[in-house]
Design a protein that fits this description.
single chain, 3-stranded antiparallel sheet, 35 helices, 67% helix, globular
Length: 787
């Protein structure tokens, strides 16, 4: 086995602990450890291999070759071709004995191919620490047993900046340790600057860290070292084409020297390469400008993506002069502002691709915002924060948005205090973003108040701004819709449609906005049971998107029509609409959209089957399961964990409704695994609730045949799951907490703890008394299903 990873990623520590564990468990009788730091180690390796092969011992032996990259061509202690061939041949001989296994660690990829071991070995790329492991490391560094919940939240945000790199995390936290136990306020103020100067200083604060980085860079020639400055602005990594765009060099010039420098950094363990599949339309349009022919929309191209050692950028930035750093930061900010706004512009037409690129480039987009804040540029900060907050939400990190927006609002306030003329457009952008965050947190009335204030401020201006007014009216209508005030929302959407007529209707973005307004107006009119008018607006939206060739938006309208019919139990018509949307997605080559359409078809057949109590219903439920499984396969192939978790959850509910409790348990546990992997706390809360409810149902169904200890175990696990769900929903002030409290009361009753059951029911009654008048404005209408 070959373990590959960046310098300081923990390869040696992993190999050492693996060897200890394998000997303790009896898998091997002994381990032979060889480090290739020097050429003499290679000669020693040859002698020890001979001893193992031809010695008298016949015990199972693990041979560890640590740092093999040092003796590869280009390494610090590179072997001659003859010696390398001899070493590789002996390694093959080791594997053929049947009693010896070889574990190799290396910074350089491709060792199996170079040694001719492809058929005999496997490669294990070593990623970063997960959040829990990183927090455990932080506890060890600070020598404490636990952190407060606020400190944990801010530490998680800080540790995420280092990409899970153990050496960098330890270095940064050791630098912080001088101030004692980390307070939440100190960490929060530090995290606000994400990847700024404070972070750089943490990573290269010690002389040892600077010496280690300088030693790694010794493999580069004197002529190549100045070229490293082009990599300084980036955080975490970047696609190759963004590197030469920010550097301001032509692609042909970059190809002359760029790959050579990158390869040497790769050998030094400071860079890792991977091929990222990006849409052809994105690469062509962003690099060359203009529209891409329709025929290539579904194609992807493999673009080299370079992941950097977390300390490389900070080290390079700390060695730059102020003038050079300012110029490179300016170019970086311009290019990433353009990238972010381009992604927001194209997201409505091609949502999945734009979101994937935005999440991939999120660290650099955050760096762009940090530069805008440091420069005190209110207008640029307002532009950048909209991009960053959008992709934080997409990445499941929406909880960070409030802190990001607070930092930008503070920058705008400081600009006004310095006497800089207030930028009204920047102020409006920030306040409208604040309204979005309020709405995300269920504070619809507060969001509405902010938006009405912005509209009033626009009307007081001497010069009208129809574009800004249209955006705010649309946002207000969305806000009213989310609060369940559908008639008022319909009025706001109609006003927005009247206003949009004043704009340039030849502009494609305006036409797309018009289609969106028709679609949303159709949705709220359907809620008001004005079906004929709703159908008319859906048809108008369909016409707009079809003329624009926006397949994703067109298919979304068709699916809305299907949802409309499904809600009124017109399952046959709904099925036809869903199949039409499926065809649109397939023609466009949109695999994720295809998965969404299959998921909706599954919901249609599930509800159709559950609405009947005949033999025919079994066939409908069987079809529903088939569609959910197809959607799950596509979601996993596309790496869409959110969609995969939704499918798994829906399969759990479907099999539970059929009485297939073991299958349902498996699906709910799979949903938990997927939502935990993506860090989706909302999804996890629903998953915990669903599994906890299922376990209680299993106890009720099997009570007579279960031993008392098994019943107790199931109820204990169900209680723990419901308490996790309740904890998150209470923290978010979500009405769904009532569902968890109800299940907890049932668990208490099943144990004979009647007083505790009453306490849980009283909690539900207290919440209803406090919130019942506004309860329909909340997320209580959102079912626990994945629809």
């Amino acid at each position: 086995m070959v373990v590959e990873g960046l310098a300081g990623q923990g390869k040696t520590a992993l190999a050492r602990n693996a060897a200890d564990w394998l000997i303790r468990t009896g898998a091997f009788a002994q381990a032979v450890w060889l480090s290739f730091d020097h050429w003499d180690s290679a000669k020693l390796a040859l002698r020890k291999v001979d001893d193992i092969l031809f010695g008298e011992s016949r015990e199972r032996t693990l041979v560890v070759w640590d740092g093999l990259d040092q003796v590869l061509p280009g390494g610090r202690s590179a072997l001659s071709p003859r010696s390398w061939t001899e070493l590789a041949s002996l390694a093959l001989a080791l594997g053929q004995t049947g009693r010896i296994r070889l574990l190799v660690t290396t910074r350089q990829p491709g060792v199996l191919q170079r040694a001719g071991w492809e058929k005999l070995g496997v490669v294990q790329p070593l990623g970063g620490l997960g959040e829990e492991d990183a927090l455990e490391l932080a506890l060890h560094v600070f020598q404490v047993r636990d952190f407060s919940s606020d400190t944990v939240r801010d530490l998680q945000q800080l540790l995420r900046l280092f990409g899970g790199h153990p050496a960098c995390i330890r270095q940064a936290l050791t630098s912080l340790q001088g101030s004692g136990h980390p307070s939440s306020s100190a960490l929060a103020s530090l995290a606000r600057f994400w990847n700024g100067a404070m972070r750089d200083q943490l990573l290269v604060a010690s002389g040892q860290a600077r010496h280690s980085m300088a030693a790694c860079l010794l493999q580069l020639g004197r002529a190549e070292l100045p070229l490293l400055a082009h990599l300084a602005p980036f955080v975490g990594g970047a696609p190759e084409f963004m590197i030469h765009l920010v550097a301001g060099v032509e692609a042909s010039d970059w190809q002359r020297w760029g790959p050579q420098v990158i390869r040497k950094l790769e050998r030094a363990g400071l860079v890792g390469q991977e091929a990222v599949e990006l849409p052809a339309w994105y690469v062509a349009a962003f690099l060359g400008g203009g529209e891409v022919p329709r025929g290539v929309l579904s194609r992807t191209v493999a673009v080299p993506y370079w992941r950097f050692h977390p300390a490389l950028g900070p080290y390079l930035r700390c060695r730059q002069t102020d003038a050079h750093r300012a110029e490179r930061n300016r170019r970086f900010t311009e290019e990433y502002l353009a990238l972010g706004e381009y992604l927001l512009e194209t997201e409505p037409q091609r949502p999945y691709e734009a979101q994937r690129i935005g999440c991939l480039e999120l660290p650099n987009l955050q760096q762009c915002l940090a530069h805008c804040l440091a420069a005190g540029d209110a207008a640029a900060s307002a532009r950048a924060v909209r991009v960053v907050n959008r992709f934080l939400t997409v990445a499941g990190r929406g909880c960070e948005s409030a802190g990001v927006l607070s930092a930008v609002r503070q920058t705008v306030g400081q600009a006004e205090e310095r006497g800089v003329p207030a930028d009204l457009s920047a102020w409006i952008a920030l306040e409208s973003l604040q309204a979005e965050l309020l709405l995300d947190h269920g504070r619809g009335a507060d969001a509405e108040r902010v938006l009405l204030g912005l509209l009033a401020a626009l009307q007081d201006r001497e010069e009208s701004d129809p574009q800004a007014q249209l955006a705010l009216l649309t946002q207000l209508a969305d806000c009213l819709k989310m609060q369940g005030r559908h008639e008022e929302a319909a009025t706001a959407y109609r006003q927005a449609l009247e206003l949009i007529a004043q704009l340039d209707l030849e502009d494609r973005s305006v036409r797309h906005h018009r289609g969106k307004l028709h679609k949303e107006l159709g949705a709220v009119l359907a809620k008001c049971h004005q079906m004929d008018e709703a159908q008319a607006h859906y048809a108008a939206a369909q016409e707009q998107f079809s003329a624009l060739g926006h397949c994703a938006s067109l298919a979304a309208v068709i699916m809305e029509l299907g949802n409309l019919c499904r809600e009124s139990s017109q399952f046959v018509v709904a099925e036809r609409y869903y199949r039409d949307s499926l065809e649109v997605f397939r023609e466009a080559g949109d695999r994720k959209g295809e998965g969404v359409a299959l998921h909706r078809l599954g919901l249609c057949f599930q509800e159709r089957g559950e609405a009947r109590r005949t033999a025919e219903a079994v066939g409908y439920l069987s079809k529903a399961e088939e569609y959910f499984r197809q959607a799950l396969v596509i979601a996993l192939e596309e790496g869409d964990l959110a969609a995969a978790a939704a499918c798994a959850s829906q399969l759990g509910q479907l099999t539970e409704s059929q009485g297939r409790l073991p299958d349902a348990e498996s699906w709910f546990r799979e949903a938990i695994r997927l939502d935990a992997e993506r860090g989706d706390k909302w999804g996890l809360a629903a998953d915990y609730h669903n599994l906890g409810r299922l376990l209680v149902r299993a106890v009720q169904a099997l009570d007579a045949g279960l031993p008392t200890c098994a019943v107790g175990d199931l109820l204990t696990e169900a209680e723990a799951l419901q308490q996790r769900a309740a904890s998150w929903w209470e923290q978010a002030n979500d009405p769904l907490r009532r569902k968890a409290h109800w299940e907890l009361s049932k668990i208490s009753a099943a144990r004979g703890e009647d007083e505790l059951a009453v306490v849980w029911r009283e909690k539900i009654e207290a919440y209803l008394r406090q919130n019942l008048p506004a309860d329909h404005h909340s997320q209580a209408e959102v079912p626990l299903s994945s629809d």
